[in-house]
Structure formats: C-alpha cells, structure tokens
Amino acid sequence: APVAVHHVEAKPSLGRRVLERVTDVTGFTSSGLMLIVVTAAAWSLGYYVGGRPLYLMAYGGAGVLIASWLYGRRTPDLTGQRSDVQARVREGQSVTVDVHLTAGRRMATLILEERLPTVLGTSPRISIAELAEGESAGNTYQLVCHRRGVYTLGPLVVRWGDPFGLTQRRRTIADEFQMLVHPR
Fold first, then answer.
1. What is the C-alpha separation between 65 and 119, in angstroms, rounded?
2. How far apart are the C-alpha atoms of 139 and 155, rounded to whole Å?
3. Whose CA is closest to 111, among 138, 144, 145?
4. Distance in angstroms (rounded) separating the CA atoms of residues 138 and 73
5. What HEC string does 161-178 produce?
C-alpha cells in the first residue's frame, strides 16, 4: 500500500525572521541596531540640551559603528563541506553528519551553522574564535528522525562579523538537500 509522506520545513519565529532579514540588508545585528538608536538619541538630546559630552558620545558611537561595518564587509576566503548523508533513512535511525570549514587566510570570529527543521532538533552552531591559513575546524552531530517524511536539511552557512558583535554577514557554503525518512 502507498505511504503518505509529509514535507516538513523549519519555521523560525516572526521576530527572528525579521531580525535576520534586517541583518542581511543592513549588516547590523540587534546590538548594532541598539547602538544606532543610542547614538541617534544622544545626538538628538545633545542638540536639544546643547550638551557637548552628548555630542562626543554620539560621534564616538558613530565611529565605532562605521569601523565595525567596514571590518565586517570583508568577505572571508573560506570553503566548507558537509559529509555525504544518506538521502533515504528509516524512521528512528541515527545519522551522523560531519561539517568542516577551511580558511584560505587567517580569520577570526566565525560561526558555522547547519539549518535543520525544528522537528529534528536545534540547528547545530559552531563558534570558531580563530582559524589560521589552511587550518580546518568542524563538528560532528547526530540526527535521529523519529517521524517519517521529507526533511530539507541545510543550507550550511558561515557567519562572520566584527569582534564587538555589532555587524554580521553570512554566506552559504553548502546547499540544502532533502532526506526521505521511511517507516520502519
């Protein structure tokens, strides 16, 4: 008898999707956006009150924002890969996935993330403080598919930014793929 297969997608919350979209467009994280608001408020209050220290604080905040944005714009020379994962697995079967990132030059403050549907658990994130030229970093994680269906795994994304966490850029380094989970 034919088996009904359900297609399952990851659904992040609305607030997370909006913040990711704003970060993709502007390059500023939530911390960077808060610093923009504080800088604008300090400048406005300095204009209204006529306070020189508020102007200095606003210009200092603007300087930090500009420096962070320029530092984060630099595209890293990175290559990444995901181990070959079986496209068809049985319900309840455990699957081991290896992800690796290799640097073409010295890099710091990187996050490697594999996006997974919420049914399969939280998306694994690997924080990498520093990678020397030619060096690799990676992680291994387990997936256990308790429900049958078609799951879209990935993409494998690398995120980088400035050391203060005010800006962030992202790049896909391995495309998404589909995994079919059969009944036992």
1. 38
2. 15
3. 138
4. 24
5. ECCCCCEEEEEEEECCEE
Q: 161: which DSSP letter?
A: E
User: Tens digit of pLDDT for each residue in 170-184?
Assistant: 888 888 888 888 887
How far apart, in Å, are the Cα atoms of 95 and each of 17, 39, 81, 141?
28, 48, 17, 8
The model's pTM is 0.74
* Reported confidence tier of residue 11, pLDDT bands at 50, 70, 90: low
Rounded to whole angstroms, the Cα distance separating 35 from 41 reads: 10
Q: Which of 98, 110, 113, 109 is nearest to 155 (CA)?
A: 113
Q: State the Cα–Cα distance between residues 152 and 165, nearest whole angstrom.
A: 29
Compute the 3-state secondary structure of the chain and give helix, strand, coil in percent, each to the nearest 5.
Answer: 30, 40, 30
Residue linked to tokens 């609305």: 14
Going by C-beta distance under 8 Å and a sequence separation of 6 or more, which residues neighbour residue 5? 148, 149, 150, 180
Q: What is the CA radius of gyration of the chain?
A: 21
By the 8 A CB rule, do 73 and 162 touch? no
| pLDDT grade for 1, boundaries at 50, 70 and 90 | very low
d(CA 64, CA 70): 10
